[in-house]
Amino acid sequence: MKITPKEKLSNFCFIVPALVLFLVFSLYPILRTFQLSVFQWNGIDKDMIFVGLAQYKHILFNNPAFWKSMWNAGYVTILSLTLQNGLALLLALLVSRNIRGENVYRTIFFLPPVLSGVVVGLIWKFVFDGNFGVLNHFLGNIGLSQFQDFAWLSEIKTALSSVAVVHMWKGFGYGFIILLAGLQTIPIELYEAAEVDGADAWQQFKNITFPLLIPIFTIVSILTILGSMQIFDLIYSMTRGGPAGHTHVPITKIYEYMSNGEFGYSTAMAVIFGGVLLVVSFAQIYASKRFNYNNK
Amino acid sequence: MSKLKMLVLMQVFFAFTFVLFTGCNKESKQSKADVVIWHWMTDRQEAFESLAQQYYKETGVKVSFETYAPTDVYKNKISAAATADLLPDVFNPIADKKETASYINAGFIANLTEEMEKDGWKDSFFTKALTQNTFEAGNEWGVNPGIYAVPLDVNSLMVYYNKDLFSQVGLDPENPPKTWPEFIEAGKVLRAANIQPFTSGFGEGWLIGAFAQSYQWNLFGKDGVLDAIEGKIPYTDARWVKIFELFAEMRDNKLFASGIVTMVNKDAERSFATGKAAMAFNGSWGVNVYHSMAPNLNYGVMPPPALTEEQGAKYPLLMFGGEGSSLFVNDKSPNKQKAIDFLKWMTQIDPQVYLAKETLNIPSNKNAAGDLPPVLKVFSENIVNTFESLPKIESWQVTNFININLQSVIIGERTPAQAAKEVQGEKERQAKADK
Amino acid sequence: MNIYKTKKTIVDTVTHIILIAVSATCLFPVFWMLSSSLKTQDQIFSKMTLLPETWNWSNYVTAFIKADFGQYFLNSVFYTVVGVFFVVFISSLAAYAFARLDFFGKNIFFYMLIATLLIPIPGVFVPLYLLLKSLGLLDSRLGLLLCYISNGLAFAIFLLKGFFDDLPKEIEEAALIDGCSRFGIYWRIALPLAKPALATIVIMNSLTIWNEFLLALVVLQDKAKMPIQRGLMVFQGTFITDYPLLMAGLTIATIPIVIVYLLMQKHIVKGIAAGALKG
To answer: Is A42 an interface residue toward B (CB < 8 Å)?
Structure first.
């Protein structure tokens, strides 16, 4: 079909609203973030002091707590990538076996992602509470009385992992739904053919399901990385970064600096953090592409 | 052509809908009050509202109190509003002196000195109630000297103890521990009886810091505290290590309630009110909180137990406190005078007595403090023992590091000496960054 | 054959056991919230029973009144409905264009859009605020809505483009020959076919908008415009230790979104399958 310039123009109209909103409310703030990050400014003073890259330098070399928080988020992310996505895959495989009640399970598994982070945080905080918590009560009932008064969210050994558990609990439904959707896109004929060839369940999984799911894994992994690295609501309502900073993550750190009037500094932190996320996402895409390639 | 038309139509529809929204906004603005006050004191909203109503009857001036909570959300809201020049007539930046100075220098906070001098308004307050927001001549932030806030109440942070639990384990409920060793002993007795001895909202950094600061004054005195801020005394000083050791000692003797390092104060308050913990470090507002949680709780209050001379205490132990909740007037507000008049009215004896009764806080107006319940009386008598106001303050980053390292000592991650070193490290990094 | 059947029964049973166990952990906290919201303070802290001894429905009335939920509730419904409507409309227009139409700078714009999905800069908050200020949109419903809408666009366009790409071209071409305009095709043919993807977008965006509070709290000044999460925050500050009341408040704030989810959920898998995975 031939397209006249006039048609091109009218076609362009379709994206005008999206484009305007995108330019004004996404692109401009991102550019502005870069600009703010080279100023020292508390949001109140009339003058912003230009400090160049000094804040970046300070974050990179003189702010161990920020890097600690990055590691904490990394820890949650690694757990999510493995355990949470592993669980999501297992459940997706089980549910896609055409069993009874598929809809019910699917509906239930996606319930935690529907709840807000604050709500989830408050409920689970109550579950983990040392004095009144349901968990300790339960453990006591099955004979593990040593956990009486054990404050899960206040011990170095368990604080971050407890938060991670809740995060995974809240998040696995997303991966599950996407993987389930992915499984349904695999043509049934492939399995039928494999069956005829005498392939067992494991071989079918290894040779059909897994390779075809790789691009979907990539999507799930990237969503998991972005979601886990940017964990905030849960931590904020469960531990506020404690004990002794052991559950601080980059966003709580950025929030902390912003709350203390360090607008410029916190935007510089945000830029660095954004950079890290971008690198990780691309590494993930690259790795899965390579993996995919090698497999073929 | 029709497709273009359709699209244009759609976009006009957009614009129209949006104009409609903005149109709504203008309407609602007309019904606004004369004086708008933003505050964070959720528990006092009802009392505030009834005062506002009374004031409306008396003067015809409409005052509206709006709550934003929790405190850090409130604080963010204030700083965002300041950035956009949208502050209400009355607010509180919830900031340290340095940040408050920024607000003043940017013209957001009115200097109330002149008003305060009129009709002896200033003299009606406890002296301590004003010092926190008074700037002296020649202060390091370049703020014009003067009084910048109206205090609504005063407070101090002390240790509450449950008299029933004390009797139960054979401790004298009328004679609570006065010194640190007695305090530790009492704690051991309580723990032996399977009662959590001590709780507080140590998950909120400032509370753990406030407890530690009492001992800083106890060991260093005013000059020493100042020297530490100025960097003349390093945080690795033996006395600072001693402060960290106090927390280690409490930990070793199992004084802390379960989960204290991530506990928000409300949870600690619940724990004390339900008799789970026998002692609680908390502010005078706790009287109101405990009253609403457990009206029959039988408790007393004592100052944080002082260190002995053998422990190196050379100065009196002081307490965190003084000005409780203050309100600042927006210098740019067209209703500035109305706002000041209302605050003046609100700090007169009658409204103050009403507030004290309804919300169980110590009124900032000393003439209204005569008729307090006994427990509050102890607090009000101790207002004189609160920290002295200092011309300099520690940077929030270092303060933060102290709080975090106190937590770290409690959970046994760092030794007191290591914690002190960590704090000094941050102090040096900040000093370098300031350059 | 019999062995095969037995084996299948065993596998099925094991499958159900696993799935039921996971379902239980998903449901328990929600169940706990509901059950706690009906208890008294005393029942929560001293007796750990699963079900409330007495059903205190009055907690809900108290929570609703104390948190001013009524007014906030309507605001939240307004933001969610209008916000989601425009996200769906704007993103589907753009996605259709990206999938089907030719215009200047098509690829550049699309990749720029997708890039914002990958560049999550949380600090964008401050600049966004400054932007609204300079546009004179602080304390306006419009300002908040624009943020919400633009926030949801990138993912929605991504999802819908994948969906539209897969639609058979023949129907459209037939319609074009019949004299239907491009917009007509989008409106009458493409959009109705994209139902599953649209349902997914509706769920995702309803969730985000309904649960958002930071931006709303800072952008809006006037209490009359605040969403339900603001009520929840104040409520939390006041009643953080009154667990039954707090849980009742949480339940009130949660139920509407769960209902939206339950109504739309049957489309969600299809929507994702056809959209995101192809895109």
So the answer is: yes
Dihedrals φ, ψ of B326, to 5°? -120, 160
Burial B316-327 (b: 16+ CB within 10 A, else e): ebbbbbbbbbbb
Of 3.40.50.11030, 3.30.40.10, 1.10.3720.10, 2.40.50.840, the CATH number of C68-274 is 1.10.3720.10
Q: What percent of chain B has pLDDT over 90?
A: 63
Question: Does position C238 have pLDDT exceeding 50, yes or no?
Answer: yes
Q: Does domain A65-295 have CATH number 1.10.3720.10?
A: yes
Q: What is the mean pLDDT of residues B294-311?
A: 93
- State yes or no: pLDDT of C194 exceeds 50: yes
Q: Which two tokens stand for residue B23?
A: 């149109």
Looking at residue B28, what is its pLDDT?
A: 43
Give the chain A residue nearest C249 (alpha carbons).
A119
Instruction: Supply C174's token pair.
Output: 């037939």
B411·A243 Cβ contact <8 A: yes
Q: What is the pLDDT of residues A86-99, one digit of tens each?
A: 999 999 999 887 78
Return the pLDDT at B135. Answer: 93
Smallest Cα–Cα separation from B300: which of B263, B272, B266, B260? B272
- Tell me what the pLDDT averaged over chain B comes to: 89
**Cβ(C244)–Cβ(B270) below 8 Å:** no
Answer yes or no: do B3 and C183 touch at CB < 8 A.
yes
The stretches in chain A having pLDDT less than 70 are: 1-3, 292-296
Q: Which domains does chain B have, with CATH numbers?
A: 34-152+324-347 (3.40.190.10), 156-321+391-434 (3.40.190.10)
The pLDDT-based confidence of B29 (bands split at 50, 70, 90) is: very low
pTM: 0.87
Tell me how many degrees the CA angle B413-B414-B416 measures, rounded to the nearest 5.
140
DSSP state of A48: P
Tell me the angle at which helices B238-252 and B396-410 cross, rounded to the nearest 10 degrees: 40
Neighbours of chain A (3+ CB pairs under 8 A): B, C
Q: What's the pLDDT score for residue B115?
A: 94
Chain-centroid distance, C-alpha C238:
27
Q: How far is A244 from chain C (nearest CA, A)?
A: 23
- Among B161-165, B169-173, C111-115, where is mean pLDDT lowest? C111-115
pLDDT of B198-245, one tens digit each?
A: 999 999 888 999 999 999 999 999 999 999 999 999 999 999 999 999
Between the CA of residue B80 and those of A191, B69, C139, C222, C236, what are the distances in Å? Answer: 59, 15, 12, 14, 22
Tell whether the model's pLDDT for residue C68 goes beyond 60. yes
Residue B3: list chain C partners with CB under 8 A: 181-184
Angle at Cα B26 formed by Cα B24 and Cα B31, nearest 5°?
100
Q: Which two tokens stand for residue C17?
A: 């056991």
Of residues B18, B86, B269, nearest to C221 (C-beta) = B86
Q: In what order do the strands lie in the sheet containing B63-67?
A: B63-67, B35-39, B90-91, B326-329, B150-151
Of C16, C119, C122, the CB nearest to A251: C122
